[in-house]
């Protein structure tokens, strides 16, 4: 039984970096969102760079390392 009164997970900057890495590997936004227990719109906000500006660059640096 789930508690639907609990808010979903709040994404962090580090989560945003992981989202960029997973998206870069071809993973679908809805699958990424499900793994973080968030609405797919939250993942889309990151990929459209409306939230956590700079996370894309951080992910690119990690990938290059």
Can you give a write-up of this model?
The model has no long low-confidence stretch (mean pLDDT 93). Helices cover 58% and strands 0% of the residues. The protein is elongated and about 40 Å long. The longest helix is centred in the first third of the chain and has 12 residues. It has four helices and no strands. With 65 residues, the chain is mainly α.
What is the 3D form? elongated
* Number of beta strands: 0
Alpha carbon gap, first and last residue: 43 Å
Overall structural class, as computed from helix and strand content, comes to mainly alpha
- The gyration radius over C-alpha positions equals 12 Å
The succession of helices and strands, N to C, reads HHHH
Helix content: 55-70%
What is the number of helices? 4
Arithmetic mean of pLDDT:
93
Which strand-content bin applies to the residues?
under 5%
Name some characteristics of this structure:
single chain; 65 residues; mainly alpha; 4 helices; 58% helix
Topology:
Blueprint: H1 13-24, H2 29-36, H3 40-47, H4 55-64
Short précis:
The protein has helices spanning about 15-25, 30-35, 40-45, 55-65. The chain has about 60 residues and is an all-alpha fold.
């Amino acid at each position: 039984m789930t508690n639907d009164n609990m808010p979903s997970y709040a994404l962090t900057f580090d989560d945003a970096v992981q989202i960029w890495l997973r998206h870069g590997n071809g993973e679908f936004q809805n699958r990424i969102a499900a793994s973080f227990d968030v609405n797919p719109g939250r993942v889309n906000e990151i990929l459209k760079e409306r939230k956590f500006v700079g996370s894309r660059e951080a992910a690119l640096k990690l990938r290059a390392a």
